[in-house]
Amino acid sequence: MEWFMYASFLLALLSMLYALEGIKRNKELEERLEKLEMKRMSGAE
Asked: Could you list the pLDDT tens digit for every one of the 45 residues in the chain?
């Protein structure tokens, strides 16, 4: 039964890391999009 607790703990840890990585990636993508929009705006004017 102990191995089951250990395995579920590892799984929770991995999913947490995966979620954090996803959040980071989303922020990077948003920043990139904002930069592109700014370039487009300044180019249109």
From this structure: 899 999 999 999 999 999 999 999 999 999 999 999 999 989 876
Comparing CA positions, the residue from 11, 33, 32, 14 lying closest to residue 22 is: 14
Domains contained in the chain, number: 1
Instruction: Output the pTM of the full model.
Output: 0.58
* Nearest C-alpha neighbor of 2 from the set 12, 18, 10: 10
Q: Which domain holds residue 8?
A: 1-45
